[in-house]
């Protein structure tokens, strides 16, 4: 199985921290040159600096198409091609006023989450595909969530955005396959990051409740998701197209808790 990425050129959005940063690190370890991108300029530049000579940073807000186009343009200007596009940038809201049922769900929260999580992934996929069609090759990986596979309460905007990312990716997989481009999705379960540590895992009782849904009884590590992304980016996944690779420790495969 050839999971090597020597001489490949990749972009990872939302790469200043968390899953995106880990994905960038993994792609570099497998031999790729990686352009990290994020709205957080200082943290993004620092993340790239820490990853060595094959990492660089270009700031970009994925909600703005012209910035995404510039990101792809800068990458192609420097490396002459783009082989791997990882659309990882995403937001959710954990403010108590946003964790409400749909009839009270703030319109602004809905709009912003759709704009970043869904439209941002479309922007990245579209801009990458325009270059990859010219090359007649490429791999696009969109990061969705288990929330796009099974609905969760009190997060209607996030659930809708992530479900749409999965279906959008399938549509693009059908369209782009004749051009030698594969489009796949990675859907993480509950992954330990600075954000989720504070939200779910700092409090023992809360952590126990979350883990009671997860057969493997642990949160995912960012490297678990990065491994799935790197696999789908590689030639080992040459015949995998339009797939949603769920990386959730078994969370969505059935009911873990006893009746
Ligand atoms: N951590 C989890 O448990 C989990 C679970 C399921 C899915 N996910 C998904 O994985 C992806 C990464 O999540 P994470 O946990 O690493 O989150 P994170 O908040 O740690 O990192 C997200 C990064 O995206 C950047 N970002 C936010 N808005 C942006 C924009 N408009 N343009 C460019 N960059 C932007 C942030 O600055 C940040 O660096 C997201 O799409 C998220 O929905 C995470």
β-sheet strand percentage: 5-15%
Assign an overall shape: globular
- Percent range for helical residues? 40-55%
Q: For the residues shown, what is the average pLDDT?
A: 97
Number of domains: 1
Task: Detail the poorly predicted runs.
Answer: none
Q: How is the biggest beta sheet arranged?
A: 7 strands, parallel
Give every kind of bound small molecule, once each: nicotinamide-adenine-dinucleotide
For this entry, give a set of tags.
binds nicotinamide-adenine-dinucleotide, 259 residues
In short:
This protein is of the alpha/beta class. The chain has a single domain, classed as NAD(P)-binding Rossmann-like Domain (Rossmann fold, 3-Layer(aba) Sandwich).
Characterise the protein shown here:
The chain has 259 residues and is of the alpha/beta class. It has one domain (9-192, 221-243): NAD(P)-binding Rossmann-like Domain (Rossmann fold, 3-Layer(aba) Sandwich). It is built from 8 helices and 7 strands, in the order E-H-E-H-E-H-E-H-E-H-E-H-H-H-E. Strands 3-2-1-4-5-6-7 form a 7-stranded parallel beta sheet, with helices on both faces. Strand 1, helix 1 and strand 2 form a beta-alpha-beta unit. Helix 1 crosses helix 8, helix 3 runs parallel beside helix 4 (107-135) and helix 4 packs parallel to helix 5 (156-176). The N and C termini lie far apart (42 Å). Nicotinamide-adenine-dinucleotide is lined by residues 13-14, 16-20, 38-40, 60-63, 88-91, 116, 120, 143, 145, 188, 190-191, 193, 195-196.
